């Protein structure tokens, strides 16, 4: 393992694939020829596993990445002249390079202004949604059709089951569909300790983009429609949009590795635990001010600019999002406690 | 190896990944953490290898599949109110579910009517192009901006260097760009015995979609711009369109396996040889009428409907495209001579 | 009246606006301020008149031109990964510069191959539709969702009520919607002598684009949804697509002029009669071979190239569509019998 | 004149067409047949008049409305993965129902945060632009390519020549094009007293959408490209997007009426003067707090909610944009001083 690995807290997608995913990828290859485009046995198997996991006969589509998963899911829930309500820090708003607008041919994202507490935690609130929906009804304004929440959020926090239910209730009241960007869905479930069903369809979520890449896959996300009526002709949409793998098994088989023996949950719980370890350590460091307690696998904190600089100089990788020292430290499925401790030690050093 | 493998001539994408690709995929994972989105060492390495292969400082983008590679390349060469000239059997016209029209937001594909000989071989001719370009100049007709040819063609034939040059000359005369759908580019080069540069940029090709999947990769194609001026901001296009892998190394590292030691060429040459073996065998079978001699890895032939039915019953997989017994038999990088011989034996049987 | 007017048979949209349309346009202006975006009295009035005309509580949208009317209607009936079945000479296929593909973000037009007789008359047949729908069901092919027919056709012919019914029956059998491009709908009704309801919703048409411009309006077409469930949120679609006139009354008021006292039908009947007069005259001319008897307002005929040239030299305007002398002569709501006779006289001259 | 007319301050597009526009519309009809699609004499004439007005050989396209003018102009300046910088109150952001995103297939609008003073006046500042452009350079964020300013602004203010120059300078520094939404361009020029060239291309504007509708046309806007290199193939874009009028003269001829004898400027100056008259009167009314002095044809003011309600009850039409009594009063080319005075009298009454 190189120095890079030990010193990365920049993103959980810097991590590689977990052994279980790699095992099944190799297995899928060993079988020789397999029908293409998802007619293979691994796609069937992982789809069935997801159905069991969610305890419902859901419709599952494996796509290549999160931009596509979210954009295609949103496009299937609205038309170009509709709009999608999300938080100001929603990944679909800030980091998809206009992907949702492209796939939907123009649906506008409407940023909900939550109370300062919720906003600080990266969460959308029922009030913020209600306010956007009732603000205007004229045809010069794209009609809201979808609410999108990120679970776990971009700020490393997690919506409780009650919070999701309250959002879903508001959405339903206004005839909006509820989409969950689950790039770190596993981290959220690991934190909540609930069943995947509880925090999704039982709480009112219509479509989940279940992130596999950050959870230990080499490549791939799953779009899960809990109500099959909403996924009519979605296979054609996926094909046209360049998201149908010809050798699909290489996307779907690694999912078997994640889902078997709850590896997905173990990977996520580990990443979450590393974030906790880092957070606890940072709380004890004068000069470091964590923004809030992490619930998933990311720690957000204020550090003095000189300390940030010094840490970068020592080789530590992490992102600065806010002027004046706001930093994000992401832990992955394979982050080692030793790396966390070494980071904390260096922090102590540079702050001394 | 299961029966499936031995009996598949349906598509070259039923094949798995070749050992060399799998080796580098595993290697890429072994390195632990790597920067995401293509900032990793494998992406750099395979890109450099492609530049050496094509003997030019080209701009290379790795995307997930052929639909996306072709659609994004075409979209970058024209606007929605332009059109793309292709053959009636072009994959972009018949099998992308409107992908090119989707990514370009409406560019129309204009099907060129080649002479019957060229049409039979799946080729577009300079005359067909010229005829479409000069037919109309009014604004009610989407202005042609691109010519797209498939190399090797969908009919298992290969454009000679002279043919590509003639097409490029016609394209340039009419201010059209030349796109090459190279889903089976390796098979074409293996047949021609020329250098990749000779049949692409030296012959006037502007953009090549170099197919990796059918050549032995698990997933992935490369979009190669020979003129960097044409690829301005293409990275943003790829990102927005959901084709930027976060863990890019899992797409790019297997390319190292293909490119090192000319595995790509060996894989293709093997598939071509299997097609020749099948074709030669079929020529000796009364009742089987090959449409034309294969130059790449697919054999097209007329068989009596009863024979087709009998072969399917015996477990042989292949596609029928034309009413009355027109069949396609595809060979892959891993097709075994024994499989070819077994198919020929069964053909003889069912025709007896 | 200038020479231009008398000698134009190029297109029925070279004609101006009829007096009745201009009268109401002026009236609408005389009222001073009016609410914008269709909340005015003229929009209400012309909409109600259309409802009475079609004898059903239809949903009506006034848009600026035929490209937009057809494209928006089609886009509302399908998604980008669906397809629209039409004839090879359909205006949406040949003369909208990819408008339908643009507004739908990529829906492909599938050209139906009718029997030679129907093809010659510019008609789509149930068999051609059935053949396209049943040809493929795989996801690599955009799923047919809509049939579009042009009434009157681009070849100056008219579908009978029975023919439309048969097409609608086929469409329904395959779960396709039926769109009617009625750029010359008035000419078709004038020919058939039936009620507008008989040839539209009673025959199975879902959406009609009722052409006003060629019928005597300065600007404007009406999109008529006979089933209001299909027009959900269509007002938003129209707005986003730049087709909502702020001073809507200037589009809608002239419709009052067309609809009052059946001016629309009188205008169309006159144009049709002029076409008949021209056709009858041409039948008597040796050297002129009308392709088929006109049913609407266009005459198609073969003339010797030298004669075509000579007529153009004499100032006559008309289009040549086919190599070797295939010509189209269009009559408008204001074409004068004297113009027809003068054209016939010149034809006789140049053929002598 | 009905009560409606006298009491409308809701929007300047409630007004009808001015006599000069109607005159030329009628003239254009009187000529009988004219070539379609802009090949007519009126289109040529009004285009030439615009070239003289702007003192440059610009490229002019007449389209139906402002949504289309702005959206098509912006789409021609960027690709789907680019972004457009505008103010938070820009019409393209708040009132086009996602039109710019639709026509560009996904270009994101980035809202610039100007200083509170500029923001209050509805203006974008060079600093706000610079801040957005330099904020991020990564491919997860749509690359800024265009700055769009509205002249006059949505808050009834006008950018000075120096302000436009400063914005253009910033735009050029960052390789951005400058688009001017001139729905009320005439009002701005009337206020500034400069030449149209001074405030557009000489100040660095690349494309102007010159609003005709609010200035006294029945229908229509002009897209003016000052640099012809930027308008390559724009005619095809217009056609595909459903913005090419077949009987174009009915759009272009009324422009002759506006441009001849500077009617456009007189109309605008009158509307501006009515706004001044209203503003002066309101300043003398205790209880009414104008937000800022108007420079164009709209007055913005705070009124007590009860007064707003009472005015509405008396039949006065105007929009409330902000909770607590923020109101907008728009004057048109035909607003009468008597109407202004009657409104002021009623204000005094209800505030008493």
What brief labels describe this structure?
homotetramer; 352 residues; alpha/beta; Aspartate Aminotransferase, domain 1; Aspartate Aminotransferase, domain 2; 2 domains; 44% helix
Question: How would you characterize the overall build of this protein?
Answer:
The structure is a homotetramer of 352-residue chains. The first copy, chain A, is an alpha/beta fold. The first copy, chain A, has two domains: 3-15 and 263-351, Aspartate Aminotransferase, domain 1; 19-262, Aspartate Aminotransferase, domain 2 (3-Layer(aba) Sandwich), CATH 3.40.640.10. The first copy, chain A, is 44% helix and 15% strand. Chain A is built from 16 helices and eleven strands. Chain A has a seven-stranded mixed β-sheet with strand order 1-7-6-5-4-2-3, with helices on both faces. Chain A has a four-stranded antiparallel β-sheet with strand order 8-9-11-10. In chain A, helix 9 links the parallel strand 4 (143-150) and strand 5. In chain A, helix 14 (263-283) runs parallel beside helix 16 (337-351) and helix 15 (305-313) crosses helix 16. Chains in contact: A-B, A-C, A-D, B-C, B-D, C-D. The interface between A and B is large, with 57 and 57 residues.
């Amino acid at each position: 393992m190189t120095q890079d690995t030990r010193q990365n807290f920049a993103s959980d997608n810097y991590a590689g694939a977990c052994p279980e995913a790699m095992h099944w990828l190799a297995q899928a290859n060993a079988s020789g020829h397999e029908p293409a485009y998802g007619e293979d046995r691994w796609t069937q198997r992982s789809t069935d596993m997801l159905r069991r996991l969610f305890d419902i006969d859901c419709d599952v589509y494996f796509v290549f990445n999160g931009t596509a998963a979210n954009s295609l899911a949103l496009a299937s829930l609205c038309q170009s002249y509709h709009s999608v309500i999300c938080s100001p820090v929603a990944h679909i708003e800030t980091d998809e390079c206009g992907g949702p607008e492209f796939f939907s041919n123009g649906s506008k994202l409407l940023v909900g202004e939550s109370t300062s507490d919720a906003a600080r935690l990266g969460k959308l609130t029922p009030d913020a949604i209600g306010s956007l929906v009732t603000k205007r009804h004229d045809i010069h304004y794209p009609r809201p059709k979808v609410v999108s929440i990120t679970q776990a959020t971009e700020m490393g926090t997690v919506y409780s089951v009650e919070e999701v239910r309250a959002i879903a209730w508001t959405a339903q009241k206004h005839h909006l569909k509820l989409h969950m960007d689950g790039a770190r869905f596993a981290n959220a479930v690991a934190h909540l300790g609930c069943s995947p069903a509880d925090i999704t369809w039982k709480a009112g979520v219509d479509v989940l983009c279940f992130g596999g890449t950050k959870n230990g896959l080499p490549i791939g996300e799953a779009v899960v429609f809990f109500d099959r009526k909403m996924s009519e002709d979605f296979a054609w949409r996926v094909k046209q949009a360049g998201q149908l793998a010809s050798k699909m098994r290489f996307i779907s088989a690694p999912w078997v590795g994640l889902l078997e023996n709850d590896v997905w949950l173990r990977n996520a719980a580990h990443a979450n635990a590393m974030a906790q370890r880092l957070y606890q350590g940072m709380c004890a460091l004068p000069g470091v001010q964590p923004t809030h307690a992490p619930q998933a696998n990311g720690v957000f904190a204020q550090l003095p600019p000189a300390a940030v600089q010094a840490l970068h100089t020592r080789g530590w990788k992490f992102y600065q999002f806010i002027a004046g020292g706001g930093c994000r430290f992401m832990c992955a499925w394979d982050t080692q406690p030793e790396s966390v401790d070494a980071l904390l030690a260096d922090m102590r050093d540079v702050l001394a």
